[in-house]
Design goal:
By secondary structure, the chain is mainly beta. The chain folds into two domains: about 170 residues, no CATH class; about 170 residues, no CATH class. The chain is elongated. The two termini are about 45 Å apart.
Length: about 400
């Protein structure tokens, strides 16, 4: 979506005074701050020749006239390229054929709740029928503060009512996302929280970002809590009480320090577990090697499943790439602005064999009624002084 200038006199005349135009005016803008005295919106909707045979919605055109220092400039909302056979984003529900004075197909409101700030939320709706009834609420956010106005966001909110076995199944597999945005005057921007529900797993993913600036906002770690896996391991080493706690870490979510193992070279290994995949259920595991003569060393444990159907090693290669990235960056590649939320996540560790240099453990991950079992082997006498790790998923 973009705003393009309109300079053609005839198009401007039709936009302003053509048949069926819907006009909305905002004139209480802080002109001393934004150099804007008024903003006019003009909305047009195509009317089908046969309303009874139409799908019930049709394209709309949105014009914006921005007046500054007595000079008016025009723009039009234009949709970018879309895939064939897909409906236009700029489509709104048609009024009832018997409405004598229909209302505008688009509602235009101050996005911040403050009429003196020229940022507007333009919203409209439609209902489309297929294997399901899709009620669509579309939004675009217009920032008209600068001499060159722009669309800073567009959003389509879909509420689906499914029909038939296939429609109901497909609808159930769809992720659902909700956005809540608050205007932060000090930042001249919206601080947004996005929550995505994954119905198949009952998990949620939360993200934070600045809407206009387009920058991610890191997850806010409570004071005194660790912000990285390395710091969590250091706290657990210094104070055993941390080994019984779960903390929300940026990029992961709920994380536990599940095991401590002293190894050679006066090092200590901490193994940490967090939410992993959910189809099938599993967990993610990391290790941190602590020592007096080096910084904490972070690693990712690739857990190959005995039941994995991956003949081309696609999943395996992705895991190895993740492992390499963690080792090279000594940080998670997942965004710090994201965390995962889910059911009650717990871990049980059972020592199966311990005869230095070899240690073998059974690790059981549980989330609500789901369970996965892993075997973890650690060899702590490698030539380079670093422990060797191997992990296998044995049950799910």
């Amino acid at each position: 979506m973009q705003l393009v200038p309109v300079t053609d006199a005839y198009e401007i005349q039709q936009a302003e005074a053509g048949a069926g135009v819907f006009h909305t005016l905002y004139s209480k803008i802080d002109s001393s701050r934004y150099k804007v005295s008024r903003v006019d919106f003009y909305v047009h909707q195509d009317r089908p020749k046969d309303p009874q045979g139409s799908p019930g919605y049709s394209p709309i055109t949105i014009y914006v006239k921005r007046t500054s220092s007595g000079k008016a400039l025009w723009w039009k909302v234009v949709e970018g390229e879309r895939e064939a056979l897909t409906e236009s984003f700029l489509s709104a529900q048609l009024p009832n054929v018997d409405e004598e004075h229909p209302s505008s197909p688009a509602v235009i409101l101050p996005a911040t709740g403050d009429r003196t700030i020229p940022i507007f939320d333009v919203q409209w709706g439609s209902q489309q029928l297929a294997n399901w009834a899709d009620s669509i609420e579309a939004h675009i956010l217009l920032d008209l503060r600068a001499p060159q106005p722009k669309i800073v966001a567009d959003l389509s909110c879909n509420s689906v009512t499914a029909f038939g076995a296939c429609g109901v199944y497909d609808a159930q597999q769809q992720d659902k996302t909700n956005y809540e945005c608050d205007w932060i005057s000090a930042n001249d921007d919206f601080r947004c929280t996005g929550t995505t529900w994954h119905d198949a797993s009952k998990r949620q993913t939360k993200t934070w970002f600045a809407l206009i600036g387009g920058k991610d906002i890191p997850f806010s770690v409570p004071a005194g809590n660790p912000a990285t896996l390395q710091k969590f391991a250091e706290l657990a080493e210094a104070d055993p009480a941390w080994r019984n706690r779960q903390v929300d870490l940026p990029g992961l979510g709920r994380t536990s320090d599940i095991m401590r193992l002293p190894v050679t070279q006066h090092n200590v290994v901490h193994v940490l577990g967090a939410y992993g995949g959910y189809a099938p259920f599993g967990a993610q595991f990391f290790y941190v090697i602590l020592g007096k003569d080096h910084a904490p060393q972070l690693g990712y444990l690739v857990a190959r499943s005995l039941f994995e159907d991956d003949p081309q090693d696609v999943a395996r290669d992705a895991e190895l790439k993740f492992q390499t990235t963690v080792a090279e960056q000594q940080a998670l590649p997942s965004p710090a602005s994201e965390i995962k939320l889910g059911g009650d996540l717990s871990f049980g560790v059972k020592n199966l064999f311990s005869a230095p240099p070899t240690h073998i453990y059974q690790v059981t991950a549980r989330e609500d009624t789901s369970r996965a079992v892993y075997w973890l082997a650690i060899d702590d006498q490698q030539a380079d002084g670093r422990p060797l790790f191997s992990m296998t998923k044995t049950s799910q």
